[in-house]
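Re: that backbone. Tokens:
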């Protein structure tokens, strides 16, 4: 596996020297100005597959795996611990996608999502996850409340971006703390122009995630949108916020032959544009039952042959 060393910075106490601060601002205006730093090996491209049963072995060349976890479930800390152990055994970098559902016994209240996750039961869950992360010596990618800017899609939709900022930073501080263990934070909006309002701040984001799904039923002309056209419409996120772009969920719903061609075209585009995407994770699953879509429920699974062919070409 081709590796490179990437220097990552974390927020710490500001140096109380105005002259030095001014010098840093001038000299490194395009870099992140956090004083605590850690260096470790990362792949030049993250390549992975999501499978509901976390089985990535049938897929060759993967170096990344993604798991989805209900942040309101008291069993989630143990499930995350098991997922991390599985990822370690399979020698892949784990992506922990945290889904902040509302606590079931509190649905009748008028509490905001932030208020629910400030409760004692939520704090306990988050502290347990923090302890699990603290024991890690290799990178973990944390993806919190993905597509928080899409109305009526997930229970963690935030109509007011400011409320999302408060929620995101609350979870970040509880999970990240001020330790040196390697957590990378993956911010994953829908990627429309208004998504910029949901940017939680440069101190809280390492990577920008996007979802790249395509179905002909979503188009009035019933035409399948290409991978390249979807990604190209979201490249502004990386350019504007100066963070690497990560395709954290990819899927195509169509006939087997069309799926094969779509993923082949996607692979070619990524290889032709090596500096535009740092990560590729295919969503090898059906759509979750709880996620209602007006056009129906989709099966994003493609043949193992087509997927392995793409993974072999993309693996660094």
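Recovered sequence:
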């Amino acid at each position: 596996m081709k590796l490179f060393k990437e220097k990552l910075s974390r927020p710490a106490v500001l140096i109380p020297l105005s002259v030095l601060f001014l010098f840093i601002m001038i000299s490194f205006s395009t870099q992140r100005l956090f004083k605590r730093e850690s260096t470790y090996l990362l792949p030049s491209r993250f390549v992975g597959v999501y499978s509901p049963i976390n089985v990535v072995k049938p897929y060759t060349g993967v170096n990344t795996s993604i798991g989805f976890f209900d942040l309101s479930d008291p069993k989630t800390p143990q499930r995350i611990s098991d997922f991390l152990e599985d990822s370690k055994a399979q020698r892949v970098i784990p992506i922990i996608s945290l889904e902040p559902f509302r606590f079931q016994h509190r649905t009748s209240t008028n509490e905001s999502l932030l208020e629910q996750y400030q409760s004692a039961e939520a704090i306990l869950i988050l502290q347990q996850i923090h302890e699990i992360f603290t024991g890690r010596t290799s990178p973990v990618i944390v993806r919190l409340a993905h597509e928080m800017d899409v109305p009526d899609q997930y229970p963690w939709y935030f109509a007011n971006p400011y409320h999302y900022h408060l929620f995101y930073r609350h979870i970040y501080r509880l999970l990240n703390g001020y330790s040196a263990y390697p957590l990378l934070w993956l911010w994953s909006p829908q990627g429309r122009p208004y998504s910029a309002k949901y940017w939680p701040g440069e101190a809280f984001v390492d990577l920008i995630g996007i979802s790249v799904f395509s179905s002909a039923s979503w188009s009035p002309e019933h035409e399948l949108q290409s991978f390249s056209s979807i990604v190209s419409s979201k490249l502004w996120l990386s350019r504007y916020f100066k963070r690497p772009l990560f395709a954290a969920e990819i899927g195509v719903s169509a006939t087997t032959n069309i799926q094969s061609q779509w993923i082949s075209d996607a692979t070619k585009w990524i290889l032709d544009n090596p500096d535009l995407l740092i990560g590729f994770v295919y969503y090898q699953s059906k759509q979750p039952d709880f996620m209602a879509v007006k056009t129906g429920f989709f099966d994003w699974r493609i043949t193992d042959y087509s997927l392995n062919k793409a993974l072999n070409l993309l693996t660094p």
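The domain at 44-314 is CATH 3.20.20.80 (TIM Barrel). The two ends are 6 Å apart (CA to CA).
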